[in-house]
Amino acid sequence: MVKTVDFEKSLKRLERIVQELEEGKLSLDEALKKYEEGIGLAKGCAKMLQEAKVKVERLVKKEDILITEDFQPEDKEDVSGDD
Amino acid sequence: MSAQKNLNKLNRLDNRSHTCPVGEIVQEDRARQDKSPSQHIYTVSELTQDIKLILESSLTSIWLEGEISNFTHHLSGHMYFSLKDENAVISACLFKNVNQRIKFKLENGLRVICFGHITVYGRRGQYQIVIEGLEPKGIGALQLAFEQLKGRLFKQGLFDSSHKRPIPTMPFSVGIVTSATGAAMRDILKILTTEAGFLHIILRPTVVQGEEAKYDIAKAIAEFNQYSQVDLLIVGRGGGSLEDLWAFNEEVVARAIFNSNIPVISAVGHEIDTTIADLVADLRAPTPSAAAKIIVHKKNEILKNLDCSCLLLTNAIREKIYRLNESFNLIYTSPAFKHPLQKIEEFQQDVDNLTRSVFLAMQHLVQIAQERLAVISGKFQALNPISILARGFSLTTTLGGKIIRQASCIKKGEWVNTRLAKGSFQSEVKRIVSDGGKLDG
Known about the structure:
The structure holds two protein chains of two kinds. Chain A is an alpha+beta fold. Chain A has helices at about 1-25, 30-50; strands at about 55-60, 65-70. A two-stranded antiparallel ribbon of chain A has the order 1-2. Chain A is elongated, with a radius of gyration of 22 Å. In chain B, the strands form four sheets. In chain B, strands 1-2-3-5-4 form a five-stranded mixed barrel. Chain B has a five-stranded parallel β-sheet with strand order 7-6-8-9-10, with helices on both faces. In chain B, strands 11-12-13 form a three-stranded antiparallel β-sheet, with no helix packed on it. In chain B, α1 (about 1-15) crosses α3 (about 45-60), α6 (about 185-195) runs parallel beside α10 and α7 (about 215-225) packs parallel to α8. Chain B contains 13 helices and 15 strands. Chain B is α/β, with parallel strands linked by helices. Chains A and B meet through α1, α2 and β1 of A and β6, α6, β7, α7 and α10 of B.
C-alpha cells in the first residue's frame, strides 16, 4: 500500500518536472537540478517494476487475526471450470 | 371459495344445456324447438355470457407454453400477440402494468411459459389469455432472477460509475479471491509471476460454486478489507455454465464488492458471461487471465511512460542548452565581438580625418598669416634704417650710440660715429653748422 502511494507520488512528481522542463522557463541551473531529479525518479520507478521479487502468499485467519503465510499451489484440480 | 362457487355454477349450466356431441345438440335443439317450446332459447349475449362464465371461472390460473407470433406492442403500452403450437393458436394479451415488469424483450418465435387467466371478449366472440407472468422457456428462471436483481441493484445505484473506485496506477500487492485449485488461480498466477515479477500476491482461496460459494466469496472480500494491505482485489473464477457462475450473480457478493474499500476487478468466466459482480466491480475483466494481464499491461505502460519521460527530460535539457548556446553565439558573433578593433579603427580614422581637416585649416591660416606678414614686412622694409642707408643716407651717433638728430647736440672736437649702408667711420667734429648757415664754435 505504502509502496503504491510512494510510487504514484513519484510518478506525479516526475510528470510535474517534465512539464516544468518542457515549459523551458527555468534557469540552466534549476533545469539541470530538475533534470537530474527527474531522471533519478524515472530510474527509481522503473527499478521498482523490474525487480524480480514475486511473493505469493495466502490469507488465513488464525484466532480471529488475519495473517499471510506461504502458499504452495496444490496439484489437484477441481471442477470450477477452465478459462 | 370461488372454486366451489364456480363448480356449482358449472353444474347448473350442465343441467341446462346437457353434455352431448355438437352435432347432436343442433339436431336435438331443432327437435326440441319443434316439440317443446318451453326449452330455453339463448340470445347471443346470453350464450356469450354463459361461455364467459364457464371459461373465466374454470380457467382462472393456468400455465401455458407456446410460441409468440403476431407480436404487437400497442401505443397504449399493452402487448397483443398469439401463442401457438403445431395445431392451435390462442390470442394473448399482456397489459402494460404487467409487461413493464418483464425484463427481457418479447419477439416473434420466442417460446415462453406464461401464467394467466382466460377471458372472453364478447363483442368479438373471442377468447384470450390475459398473461400475468411470463418467462422464456429454458434458462428463464435464472435469467429472470438475474434481470430482477440487476434491475433492483441498478435502481439502488450499485452500478453507478460515480461509485467506481479508481484502479491504482500501479498495484504492488494484489489480493485474489477464487478457488485455490481452479483454472482461474492457475492462469492468474502464471501470468503475474512470469510477467509482473514485482508483485506481492495474496490468495484467499474460496469455494466458487454451490450454495456456500456466495457467502465464502463475500467473506473473503470482507477479510481482505479488514486485512487492508492490498492495493487491488481480483474476484472471479473460470468459465462454466450459468449455474456454475451463479454465485457471482448473488446479491450478497454484489454488496460485498460494492462495500469494498479496495478496488475490485471482476474476472468471471468467459468474455460473454456478464454477471452482477461484473456490473458492480470497479473494473470488469472478461476472464481471469485478462485481469492478470491488466496489471501486466499497466506495468508495461508505465515502463514505456518512464522511458518517454526520460526522453522528454533529456530533450528539454538539450533544448535548453542549445538555446543558451544559440544566444551565446548570437552575442559572440555580434560585430563588436567579431571585430573588436574595428570601432577603434573607425575612431582612429575619424581622428585622422579630423586631424587632417585641422591641419588643412591651420595651413590655410598660416598661409593667410604669411601673406599678411609679407605685406607687413614690406612695410617694415621701407621703414628699416638700413634700407634707408642703402638709399645713400647715413646715420650719425655719438660714440655712446646716441642718434644725433640736431647739430646743437654735439660739440666741436667731439668724436662721432657715422654709419653707412656698408660699414661706418668715425670723425672729429671740426665745425658746427646750425640751420641757416650760422656757425657755432
